[in-house]
Prior knowledge:
Structural class: alpha/beta
Amino acid sequence: MEAMTTFPCSGSTTWWGTAPGTALEVWAAAHPLQVISQVYVETGAVDPKLYTDLDTVFMDGRSSGYVPLDIPADLRIPLTGIPVPTAIVHSDPDRVAANLEHWKKANDVDPTPRSHPGYFHGADLYLQRPDSKAWATAHGGPVSEVLLLHTDSPVLLPSFSETIHGFLSKFVSYDNTTAYGNHLALRKEYGEIRTMLVAGEIREFMVYEPKSASRIWPEGAPVVFVFAGNSQTDKVFFHNTLWWQVADREGFLLAIPCETYSRSSNTVSHANTGEFYEKLAAFMKANHRVDPTRFYATGQSAGSFAVQGFGITHPGYFAAIASTSGLSHPGEGGGFGQIAPADARYETIPNYCIIGEGDIDMMTGTLWDETRNMLDAWAAYYLEANEAGPLGNGANLEQTGRFQTWTWTNAQGFPVFKVGRTLHRAHNCIPAEMPLLWDFLKHWSLKDGVRCYDGQPIAPAKESLRGLVQ
């Protein structure tokens, strides 16, 4: 009997019965990125050799058609190194001992079990090691777990189904296309879900106000407007980015517009983004204690294209922008990410964007390679608009772990433009990038047309640098 099998994005699964359950468990072991969490009830034994063979199968650097990555041998992740929270319910635990050992290894758990009477009927609980080196939990922390419940009691009861649902829905995971961008985290209760009318269409949005907001910002908190990637809703993107973790710590609000159901019958896409933002900004001012001088924008992919486009056409919308994997620039062709040159304002707006090493082909590489692409055109515009040129030779590189960053300052020494590159990442952003974006945004404010860095105003624009950064 199948309770739920929804994957790849909502990959929490439950299976009862020896044959179907065992088949799914074998499949999950070979495709761990496709399953968020799982529960197996009275399933059969699996040949231990199948599990040990998976130790020699490593994830590659390919991700859904993006630029392939060459992963160094010492960083390659085996199939047995991807955590998948797992619960096993069985009347004869010895029969599934090999199954249990495999999932304990995959989740890198402490070998000593513990139990809590109120949690999963007192099952043996194996928690992920605090010092786990699993890539999927490198940012969110060791949240995975393995459960073993030895019981002869009937489990096909509504009350037990609720127990299973509670375990499965405890976790979220993204991205399921590559082990080097995948993350596992605990589910967070959504913020307030509201709707408004935009261009005659009902649009959903989410506002997340952390409890820390009024304490840290008693006079009004900053707002980060988060624009989701194409095909993603506000609810999906809330957990894909873990922006809420940064908001909890720093006290700012999140305002997340949902895309519109206009691309197809089951896929969402962007529409009327400018009008939506203006109405949402007005809503935030009218209904929440916010600081309008600290409105910031971020986004991923199509959401980043939108944010970077706003920086060109409406630099007064935000005090600063910082996004991932989506670049816009003035261009005559009218292609994706191109802004009509007549609409470009060439005004200062602090900007930071992070690109994956294996991102969309038209934005990968560096600003100093031989390929001229969207990355070069985007940087040329913002270096000029922020009077931060010339481009230089790349000697301003700073690297921390897998994060490479190049920073340009204006004449006052303010960091007005940053380019980031995350190694071993494909197109989808990773939660570890969000604190980097916030650390850039938080210094900027914009009031009555005056933009300030830590309270110090940017000097009036001098002679244009146009041509120096080409």
